[in-house]
Amino acid sequence: MKKYPHTMVECLRDLAVSRPDDAALVVLSRSGELTLNYAQLDGRARALAAVLQQRCQPADRALILLDNDEHYVVAFFACLYAGVIAVPVFPPESLKEQHLARLSGIAFDSQATCILSSSAIIAMVGGAMSALGVADVLAVDETDWEAAEQWRPFSVQDDAIAFLQYTSGSTSAPKGVMVSHGNLMANERAIE
To answer: FRET partner for 151 with CA separation of 20 to 30 A, picked from 51, 57, 81, 112?
Structure first.
């Protein structure tokens, strides 16, 4: 019988050791193609997780306010590595009140203690970021990737919450669903 990793963190850590130079993530954009291997993805996740461990407590919530790119993947894994509950949300379409109200509602409902974003999105949203009621804002793309060695391994149970997934809120206030580390791994096994 095949032995499966207990968590996504264990899975990525194992791949970073057993297949460090294999492509883990390929991002295609208008500016070209970016490839991160398993060692690079693990290192970046650990570096950001080390920052999160300094600024957050286990089970705190972090809004991941990013587009679907390498920063999003790094931020999601960093949350898992730090024991912080990820709350993925798309950046607002505009600074109109309705778009900011959705984000503000999710920030309040999830009790987010920090926001993980990019310097470009932070600059775009600007002062409206304070309307979300979350004081701690980190630019993922400005993380010192050398900080990976400061990461402290964090052990989680299967029933611990890995992330909160919110509905779009197009017909009512966004509603969140709790996804545990066990749920996440069961889903990965089903996909395999």
So the answer is: 112
